[in-house]
Amino acid sequence: MMGRFRKALARSAVLSVALALTALWVTPAAHADTPPDGGELAASWLAAHDGPAKYPGRYPGEVHIDFDVPITMSDGTVLKANIYRPVDANGVPVTAPLPTIVNLTPYTKFASWLADVALSVPVLSDALIQLVNSIDLTGTPLQSLTDLTRALSGGAARGFGADRKLIQQGYTQIVVDVRGTGYSQGTWQFFQSRETQDTSEVIDWAANQPWSDGNIGMNGISYSGINQYLAAEQNPPHLKAIFPVEGSTDVVGDVAAPGGGLGLFAPVYIAAVDALKNIPDPVGLLLGHLDPKWLLDRISTPFEFFDYILMALVPDVSQLPEPLRKQLEPGSPLRNAFTDSHPERIHVPTFAYGGWQDIFAPSSSMVYDRLPLPPEQKKLIMGNTYHANPGSGFGNPGRPPRLDVLQMAWYDKWLKGIDNGIDKYGPVVLWQQGGWFVSQQGFAKQDADYRRVYLSAARSGTANSVYDGSLSAQAPDAPAQLTVSPLQGATALCSRDSAVESAGALSILPFCAEDDRIHELGGLTFTSAPVSEATTISGPITAHLNTMYDTSEGYWSVTLNDVAPDGRSTVLASGQLTASLRAVDESKSKKDAAGDYTETAYKLTLADRQPLVPGQPTVLDIAVNPVDAVLQPGHRVRIDVYASNFPRGVLLPPLLVESRLAPQHLMLDPDEPSFVNLPLSRELD
C-alpha cells in the first residue's frame, strides 16, 4: 500500500512540475518596473550617445550630407531626401553598411537641416543647451516659459532635425519630403494610402542601398510620428523599430474633429503646410537641382485640403458641397486616412512619447495597451507637456533620460542587437498629474474602479461660476434645471484647452493655462468634498449628461479638475461633443460592469446625425480624455460643464447657425441623473 502511495505521490509531483512548466510557458514573465530616470542603465545609454564617437570625423559634429537626393516611387513620382552619413578621420563617407533611420516630413527637409545646423555648431550649441537648462523660473509667473525652453535640452529637437551624435555612433539618417510637400513632386496626400505606400517604398529603397545594412528604424515628431504608426501597421520586413514622438492613432478623435467639433489648430495647420510646400528647397536650388515637374505640381494644386474648410462655410448642412460631403462619408480616402488606424496590427518594436497637454494626448496615452507586443518591445512615456515642448526637462534628476538618448538606446537594441537594457525600461513612465513621474505596467492603474459621481444642484461654496454645484456618490433627491450659454463660455479663450490648441503658445499665461478659475466664470461647476487621503484617477472617462435645448443643435464641453485647498483649479482632462453627432460607435467603445461607458467613440457621420428636439430631454455620453492623476489629501474633484469651447472646439459653421448660440440646459433628474464615470482608487469622501 505504501508502494502505491509512493508511486501516486511521484506521479503527483511530476504532474505538478509539468503544470508549473506549462504555466511558465504560456504566461509571460512579469516585467519589473524600472525607475523613471532609468537608474543605472541610463548612465550607459547617455555614455553611448554622448561619449566618444565611433566616427568622429575631422572636427566635432562632422558628417557627410547628400542634399536633395531623388527617390523614385512606383508611380514615377520623385521624392527628395537629404542623406546624413558618418565620415572617417579624413572626412570620407564611411562605406561600411550601417543601420538607417528614416524620417518622412511635411515640414521640409530644409527646415530639418536648419534645426540640425543650429544644434551642431561646435561648442556653441552645447553651451546654449546648458544655458537654457540652467534657467529655472519655476514658482514665478514665468514658469511656463521654462517648461517651453527646456524642450531644447530634453532631446526632442534632434528628432525633428538630424541627430549628428547618433550618426557619428554608426547610423545613417534620411530625411525625406513627403509627397506634395517640400521639394518632392506630386500632390500632398495627408496620410492617405498613397503616402503610406510611399513610406514603405522609401524603407525598401533605403534598405537596399550599399551604405545600409538593411535594418531600418523610423523617427520624427507629430506628423512624422503618425506616419511611423501607419508604416508600422504594414510591418515592412526591413522596419525593425520606430520612435514616434507626439504621434496619433486617432487623428479625428484627437484633433481633426474631437466630438464632431472643429478646432482652430486644424485649419491653421493646413494653411501652414500649404504655404511651406510652395517654397522650393534653397539648398536644392543652389545646387542647380531645378525641377520643372515640382513647379507644375505646385501650380496645379497650390492650396490642398484648405478648400474643404472653405466648403464648410455654408449656412445649412443640406447645402454642403458634394466634394466635401463625399469626403465626410465612411470609406472615403480622406476619412479613412484619419480614422482607419490599426495599432493592433503593429509588430514592430515601438517606443512612444506623448504629453498630457498635447493635442494628441487621447490616443498617445492609450497606444501602449493597444499594441500587441510584449513589454520588452513597447514603451510609453507621457510627459506633462504641450505639442511645442516634448521632453521638456528630460535628463534632469528624477526625470526620464533625454529623448535623443532613449531613441539611440532603442535603435541600438533593435537595429544593432546590443543588449543595453532598454527593453527593461518602464515599460510605462507617466507624469502623474498632481504628483511626479511613476513607472508602471500599463496606462490605467489596476486598482482604479469605475464609479459614478453624480452632479448635484447642492451648492458647494467653492467656486465662482454660472452655477456652483456639487459632486456626490448618490443621485440627487430633487430635480433641477441649470442653464448655461455658449456666449458665457467665451471665457474658454483663457483656459488650458486654449493653451493645448495653441500647441502650448498660450501656456505662457499661467493664470489661464494653470488655473481654470477665469474659465469657470462661464460654466457650471460641480465640486466634491476634500479627499481625506491620496486618491488616484487613472483611465479614460465619460460624462453622462441629461440635457435639453431651445433649438435643434448644441455643443458641450466638460473638464475634470483638481481643486487645491487655496482654490486653484487645475484642468486634468477635457472632452467635447456636438449634440446632434452623439451616436456612439459601439464597436470602438467600452462599458463597465454596470453598463456605463468608460471609453466612448462616435460614428461622426451625417447619416447618423440626430437633430435635437427643442424642449425634449436628450442624454449624451461625452468622452473625456484619459488621465492619470493623484488627488492629494485636502484636494477636491471638480467637473466643469460649458456650452462652448473655442478655440479648442466649435460647431461646424452650418451647425453653429442652426444652434443660434441659444442657451443650453443641464437636467439634474433623480430618474435620469447626470453623472461622470470616474476610474477611482477609492470612493470620494
Pick out its properties.
685 residues, alpha/beta, eleven-stranded mixed sheet, ten-stranded mixed sheet, 22 helices, 24% strand, disordered N terminus
Largest sheet: 11 strands, mixed
Per DSSP E runs of 2 or more residues, the count of β-strands stands at: 23
- The end-to-end span amounts to 63 Å
Radius of gyration: 27 Å
Low-confidence stretches: 1-30
Number of helices: 22
Name the overall outline.
globular
What fraction strand?
15-25%
Arithmetic mean pLDDT: 92
Helical amount among residues, as a percent range? 25-40%
Description:
There is one protein chain. This protein has 685 residues and is α/β, with parallel strands linked by helices. Helix content is 29%, strand content 24%. The chain is built from 22 helices and 23 strands. Strands 11, 12, 13, 14, 15, 16, 17, 20, 21, 22 and 23 form an eleven-stranded mixed β-sheet that branches. A ten-stranded mixed β-sheet has the order 1-2-4-3-5-6-7-8-9-10, sandwiched between helices. It has a two-stranded antiparallel sheet with strand order 18-19. A hairpin with a 5-residue loop joins strand 9 (428-431) and strand 10. The longest helix has 25 residues, at 2-26. It is globular. The model is unreliable at 1-30 (pLDDT under 50).
